[in-house]
Amino acid sequence: MVRQCTNKIKCSQCQRRHYNVMCPELKQVVSTGSDKLVAKAVENSNEKFHTLANPTCSADVLLQTLVVYLYGNDGNFPVRALIDTGSQKSYITKEAVSKMSYEPIRAEDMIHNLFGGVESKQKHHLYKVYASSFQKDYHCSFEAYDQETICIDIPRAISGPWTKEIEKKGIFLSDKEACLDDSASSVHLLIGADIAGATLNHLLDGAPDCYKMTAQHLQKSMYVDNCVASVKSEADLTKFINESREIMALGKFELRGWQHNSFESLRDNCKESQNASHILQDIPVLGLLWNIERDTLKIDVRNDTQSESVKVTKRYILSKCHKIFDPIGITAPITLIPKILLQETWKIKANWDDILPEEIAHKFEKWDRQLHQLNKLEIPRWIQGHKNSKHSLHVFCDASQQAYATCIFLRSVNQQGVTCHLVAARSRVAPLKVFPFPDWSYWVVASA
């Protein structure tokens, strides 16, 4: 209830105690004519709409901007930077390059793929950029290409009552109105996705000595913003999680969403789940689905069978085939079928959008209808080896006029018996896919 709420927020439309989006008067204005509301918002704002966002009560759309210090022979000065994870490269304005007296490393001709599929060819000079955080407690260097203008002026965070609320949560905003004067409002540095990995490696390389072992383990376990690691025991599991959090917190990173299995509890859960009616939870891990209770991996195949109106073409077959993400290669006998059909389309010299002959289309439709069966296919995540186990690799090959295949199995012999696990598979049109099986019993994943 409003009378029990401790938040002192007030609506800018009617001055009552609720957020703007919940204002009844706002809903009335929108229903009677949204053009007047938008016109009023633009009239009351000094900024113009610079984005493709839907019209709102505010003309400003805040992006991931921050203030960093650039270092050169003549000292250092603060500039605004923009984090753009959609860019494969980092860029710096020619004005900043001139001010810092950076020397070019080399020149490159690059093709930019822009919004709407437009391509433009430009020549850029590559520079070594030296930068630090606004607090100057973190320094790094990276390569960036020069650009005349990175983007138009982007609004900064406006100081207000919410600033104190953000500070209470330990969040520091460097790109605020008071940090730089109006003359330095332009963005001079674009930080692309290529810098994220370098920043993380720098953090892990500089970890305290007491965390060196965990930092090295964490560095081998990171993939983009996900962590997938194996540990030997539950004690190592607790140590890895706690120390990983502390290491990442040094760089203001947060590892969250921890998921892990325990073989002691796994045995009990498996017995209980035999008669359970609920569906066991599948956790996505790097494109695969991991079932914690059964400790199995399976392929994530979406049930999107084609409609009768869809015409089977070479482009359509290729699209459906590539929707199956299988880095291990366990579905190679299944995914090989549409690839053979594609070979047949090349023989008849069919174009990408030509409707294929009925014989080829019928074979593909039959394969497509049965594709959902792959969701039932599961393989054990852990090859349950013991200290006294003896392991051996067994390779099987076979070939025909259409395709050939190779499978590699790991055979383990111990006191409990003999077990075999598929660790690699290969088809004619796909390279050998080796599954990096861990020899430890505890698996842990997290995301940043």
TrEMBL record:
<dbReference type="GO" id="GO:0004190">
    <property type="term" value="F:aspartic-type endopeptidase activity"/>
</dbReference>
<keyword id="KW-0695">RNA-directed DNA polymerase</keyword>
<keyword id="KW-0808">Transferase</keyword>
<dbReference type="Pfam" id="PF05380">
    <property type="entry name" value="Peptidase_A17"/>
</dbReference>
<dbReference type="GO" id="GO:0003964">
    <property type="term" value="F:RNA-directed DNA polymerase activity"/>
</dbReference>
<keyword id="KW-0548">Nucleotidyltransferase</keyword>
<dbReference type="InterPro" id="IPR001969">
    <property type="entry name" value="Aspartic_peptidase_AS"/>
</dbReference>
<dbReference type="InterPro" id="IPR008042">
    <property type="entry name" value="Retrotrans_Pao"/>
</dbReference>
<protein>
    <submittedName>
        <fullName>Reverse transcriptase</fullName>
    </submittedName>
</protein>
<dbReference type="GO" id="GO:0006508">
    <property type="term" value="P:proteolysis"/>
</dbReference>
<dbReference type="InterPro" id="IPR021109">
    <property type="entry name" value="Peptidase_aspartic_dom_sf"/>
</dbReference>
